[in-house]
Amino acid sequence: MQINEVTRLDRDDQVAVVTVASPPVNALSAAVRTGVAEAMAMAYADAEVQAIVLICEGRTFFAGADITEFGKPVVEPSLRQLQVIVEDAPKPVVAAIHGTALGGGLELALVAHYRVAVPSAKLGLPEAKLGLLPGAGGTQRLPRVVGVERALEMMTGGEPIPAADAESVGLVDRLVPEGALREGAIAFARERIGAPLEKIRDRPLSLRPGQVEAFRQANAKRFRNLAAPEAIIRSVEDGAAIPFDEAMARERELFNELLAGPQSAALRHVFFAERQAAKVDGLPKGTPTRPITHVGVIGAGTMGGGIAMNFANAGIPVMLVETRADALERGLSVIRRNYENSARKGKLTAAQIEERMALLQGTLALDEVAACDLVIEAVFEQMDVKQDLFRRLDRIAKPDAILASNTSYLDLDAIAAVTSRPEQVIGLHFFSPANVMRLLEIVRGAKTDVGVLATAVELAKTIRKVGVVVGNCYGFVGNRMLAARHAQAEALVNEGAMPWDVDRVIHGFGFGMGPFAMRDLVGLDVGWVREKSTASTVREVLNEMGRHGQKSGGGYYDYDDRRNATPSPIAEQAVIDFSAKLGIERRAVSDDEIRDRCILAMVNEGAKILDEGIAQRASDIDTVWINGYGWPPYLGGPMFWADRQGLPAILDRLRALQAAHGEAFRPSPLIERLVAEGKGFADA
After folding, report:
1. Catalytic: 107?
2. Is 127 labeled as catalytic in the residue annotation?
3. What does the mean pLDDT of the chain come to?
4. Burial letters 235-263, b for 16+ CB under 10 A, else e
5. 93-122 pLDDT, tens per residue?
6. Exposure of 315 by Cβ count < 10 A (0-12 exposed, 13-18 middle, 19+ buried)?
7. Parts of the chain with a pLDDT under 50
8. 57, 69, 127, 423: the active-site residue
9. Domain 3-hydroxyacyl-CoA dehydrogenase C-terminal spans what residues (predicted)?
10. Domains in the chain, ordered, with CATH?
């Protein structure tokens, strides 16, 4: 019987089956909630029904609340009202789970009397990733099922757990075979006919002395500046201290506080921005893509090896090319070691390591890439080196092969121009470590074919990257803005700040580390050539002294055997001497000036990038910076952050900085236009 457009009620002898089909992810929309409530009422009223199964069609169980309804008037029944209907069922209710049971989906399953799942299912409460806490009883019921510590880990981290793990901690009552969820759930429901109807809310929730505080302290670094994890912890504490209904009311208050707060707004922006990035101007939906069944990667160093791992992880064979046998062997050894590290953390099995390594074939012969559908170079960041390689690849690669450059800064069109197939050349800018970082800047050249672009966009999904299409210019989006920040960071140090002052302010803003600590980590000598060094920057001076960063025991900072950093007196003197060399009289530099010059330089450069069409939309810039450069997600990205500050205030500050520090801060024409029109970057 069809209840409404998304809900159906059927019977299998004594078992009623409530089926929801609301693609793509069966979100708990108003229509879904209404349909389930009506179906449940009918099943309760049917004297022949002795048990009920709640199941979804399509690729998943309820994947969560309908985020588009957040902040809007609630359409009854609310999720909490629906939960009461299910929880108070006079007959056993079994939630049948496949795909994912996330957020509100799992919270609905937690009010059923039982949960069965197929082995491939995953269950979780990811609300913290949106700056929220589970607002429909998740903080109260999950700890009563899996224990306080496991519940806190699941809720504050937001990562779903596999069905087998869920069964081991009691979150799932039975695993049933893949493809037999409906049959298995109905069979399980029959077994429970007449059994006592236990509610999870009636189970005890108790805390050991110091248990929650120990969790807080153990995760202090991970939770830095985040509001949602602390709210989750407090709500669990409430559950142990006050009656269930009062704790539920307090959970809702905390949820509403977070929902109205700036962090959730920013994180929801990030959520939608990543999805919006896949919509590319000039790339019609349904554009044919090319099959990528074999990939060539030129260069087996840190970047090339990481790139190769992405494809092996996706089951795509890789030909890894090097010029020297020792470099090739070292590259393959590093890849194996990376996989073994993952295995030690329980993320891979020994068999999976061998499966992936078997997909990686090393060679010293460039000709071996002749049969590859895609060839990616990860060689030295120098134009003549890349152009020479592309000339050779143009002769070797099969006619329909895509040739990709991993260049970070160089002109993609100049690289493509040396080939006879510029339409098949594209930029695929991975971020180090390439096997870990989520961002992939997809650089569209002036002549890049639309089918090649569509293939790259689809390929990003295949290798589980966040692909953002950008235009061709120096540094593209991320590195062009990074260069603007670096220029100000260096200027601030020349004028009177110390590197650790700048790092402290940028870290305090929310970044994982500041620009000088990052340079030490990467290596001050990356891109530095001793023979061409002229001591024209503090970085060059330090390199000439043999201070290359962490790997040499010193750069801007000094490092002990465990790479713990302390401000370096040697670097401090180098800074002071360099200022004197430039004829600059050093002065006191405030934290506010450091923040404004570094952050507003990025915002202003981002506005220029947007105005020039290098980025399609402001949210694409945010996506680049969050996934590739460590911008704190709870601040939404540089362009979102600027909108929240108010562009009139940004414009005023840029004009003041221009007057004090020169043309680097001349406001982008786009900012001036948007302010004049009363708009923000989101409207551009």
Report:
1. yes
2. yes
3. 95
4. bbbbbbeeebeebbebbbebbeebbebeb
5. 999 999 999 999 999 999 999 999 999 999
6. exposed
7. none
8. 127
9. 475-559, 596-679
10. 2-260 (3.90.226.10), 295-477 (3.40.50.720), 497-582 (1.10.1040.50)
